[in-house]
Amino acid sequence: MRYPHVADQLSLDRVVIRFAGDSGDGMQLTGDRFTAETASFGNDIATLPNFPAEIRAPQGTLPGVSSFQLHFANFDIVTPGDAPDVLVAMNPAALKANLRDLRKGGVIIVDTADFTKRNLAKIGWAHNPLEDGSLGNYSVHALDLTGLATGAVAEFDLSRKDASRSKNMFALGLLSWLYSRPVEGTLKFLSEKFAKNPTIRDANIAAFKAGHAYGETTETFEVRYQVDPAPMPEGRYRQISGNLATAYGLITGAHKAGLQLFLGSYPITPASDILHELSRRKDLGVMTFQAEDEIAAVGAALGASFGGSLGVTTTSGPGMALKAETIGLAVMTELPLVVINVQRSGPSTGMPTKTEQADLLQAMYGRNGESPLPVLAAKSSTDCFDTALEACRIAVKYRTPVIMLSDGYLANGAEPWKLPDLDSIEPIEPNFATGPNGQGADGKDVFLPYERDPETLARAWAVPGTAGLEHRIGGIEKAARTGNVSYDPDNHELMTLTRRDKLRRIVADIPDIEVDDPSGRARVLVLGWGSTYGPITAAARRVRLGGRDVALAHLRHLNPMPANLGDVLRSYDKVIVPEMNLGQLAVVLQARYFVDITRYSRVRGLPISLSELEVDLNAEIDSLKEEN
User: Domain 515-627 classified CATH 3.40.50.920?
Assistant: First the structure.
């Protein structure tokens, strides 16, 4: 009698898994489902989806490889990890494209179905690595996943092509067993997703269950792994991506201001998911307009703000270039406008599905004339909610366009998010003008559209159609207080300085930058912005575990900056600024504070490697010791 195989149980603190295959193999869905179950189990998670820009690259080629990386642990983590511990490769191209990233001794689970001479030659392999011993440094499980999945769904009379498509669900079932993941959520998901096609629904469920059963019964895997839940503050959590968090932050901001949220947008990778989500939220009073181009999108958003709504537009770098003139118009008209730039690799079309941080200078200075505006940057996928909410608050309170910077890594990545207490979020007062606010030359009460709040320097915001509040609007320079067209040199200088000073008033609402320097002995400060937060934090933890001292600080407000930033920068012997660009924040800091900044630049379309950063930080700290 043959008894079911029972694998040994091994507890781990953390695991990094990468699912990789052809862009049609469903790797994003597979990774997302594994992530959802892992989040429901209670692990801390961080993800890194990575997919081709082409809609359908040639099958079996290196440019067509799509991957999804998940880091999950029983403690607080801040990055999706560098080197995967496990690589699930669905074809030769996926194996070759990702093998160099796998740690030595890592696990490879590979589908052997496509390892033909033709497919190997297509990616430049003369020999089959599954047979020539070249994978000796790894633990390799070569399985015919396609054949196993096809057999599992044979009863459903699918075409060969449709049957083979279930291999991703077979792999998901196998990995769910191997890492002791819950299965109920995935079974429910498949039932709902394919409810209109019962055959496909039942086939996918059968393949998933077959993969799970294969892990239980085969003797291929001698060890099964367990990663316990991570301790987290009490509360209700859900998995959330950066784009979804941004959408929720915008909805909350508009709600707290008592305004209708109007999104004028044109689809562009990787920002489109914000448009997709907001278009589903008519029940929350959201109005979305998919425009014919980027210029129309931002124009509609600004028009909505003129009409008394909260105008928002979303885009990525190339779209920002097209929106620049209308953003300048928002500076001149001094109306609220929230501009979300989900950055990607450039210039021009660049690498649309890859991440970068190279739009900072564009956000700060990419308009004609003196046109200052606030710039914020989210540090994590979940922080996109708070940063979007903050952008709404500043835009409404100070009557200004605000640019929020996210990036492809944050937009598509996911983390556990503790649902906020919405009642505890302070309201945002739009303070619409309701009547005359000044006197004309004849002594009669009049409405002065550029009469300002003495604290914020925000001008009056009048909803069109309100009796007695008629006023001029447009891009030509305004006369102070009256808003009439003015070419007077002194008035232009006054208005230019006023717009600058209004930006400076925002500093009062910005908290001082906090420095994480546990020992108080650090001589090196690592300063980050945006999505470098994760790699910087993780690298610093490792540096400290190695017995060295390093201080950390991170900027959300990039323009204006916290009031104490200059003093902080000058209190350390060396300031290192890691960025996914060629040193844009470093340039700004040097110009504003006259301090030496050590640039740490990476522009590879990927997040900064925490392992590389750890090594380089150790070297910088040791070099200071040697100098003394």
Answer: yes
